[in-house]
Specification:
- This protein is mostly helical.
- It has 2 domains: 54 residues, Homeodomain-like (Arc Repressor Mutant, subunit A); 123 residues, Orthogonal Bundle (Tetracycline Repressor, domain 2), CATH 1.10.357.10.
- 71% of the residues lie in helices and 0% in strands.
- It is built from 10 helices and no strands.
- The longest helix is centred in the N-terminal third of the chain and has 22 residues.
- The chain is globular.
- The chain starts with 10 loop residues before the first helix and ends with a helix.
């Protein structure tokens, strides 16, 4: 009986595309890199890049080796509006980081600390896939929005480093139900309180 479905791809070609994608994203950032440029440098047709990865966004996630795409979680967290968003964000965030996915995410963060190109890619990921998505989903407007959402990002990254990378106690072992109102309240203030 003949097999149906997509023919398995060449792993060497896939890895070559990922290598050139990492170089391009690390050098030019998410916005500056293009599928066409990446394909050309990898010596393949752009259609092959789409075949393996689907979209530039999916290629970026694969190149960065992100274990879960938080950008897909944001719409659900934002669905109930801005009221209570801080606590919902922190609860979801802790749920992901306290799961096996968190181990892979911690490895990615450690890699970003050691390699400038990973740090640049991670910064683009944070800006494009998380903070920009929060702005869009919550329909935030005004000149202070960029500062507000980067404050949210800084709070979440601080939580990652203290709880999961440096394992600072008692924060590292505190139950989520203790942290959600504290950190969530800070996130909420960043988003809704008047700036001084």
């Amino acid at each position: 009986m003949a097999r149906t479905g997509r023919r398995p791809g060449n792993q060497d070609t896939r890895e070559a595309i990922l290598k050139h994608a990492r170089d391009a994203f690390g050098e030019k950032g998410y916005e500056g890199a293009s599928i066409r440029q990446i394909a050309t440098s990898a010596g393949v047709d752009p259609a092959l890049v789409h075949h393996y990865f689907g979209s530039k966004e999916q290629l970026f996630l694969a190149a960065l080796q992100v274990p879960i795409d938080p950008g897909t979680l944001i719409p659900g967290i934002a669905a109930e509006g801005i009221d209570g968003f801080g606590e919902r964000l922190v609860r979801t965030f802790l749920g992901v980081w306290d799961s096996p996915t968190g181990t892979a995410a911690a490895a990615l963060i450690r890699s970003a600390v050691q390699h400038d190109w990973v740090a640049r890619m991670l910064r683009d990921f944070l800006m494009q896939r998380i903070l920009k998505r929060i702005t869009t989903e919550l329909k935030l407007e005004g000149p202070d929005v960029p500062l507000r959402v980067t404050l949210v990002g800084s709070q979440m990254m601080g939580l990652v480093f203290a709880r999961y990378i440096f394992k600072v106690e008692p924060l590292a072992s505190a139950p989520p139900e203790t942290l959600v109102p504290w950190v969530g309240g800070t996130i909420q203030r960043y988003l809704t309180d008047p700036l001084p």
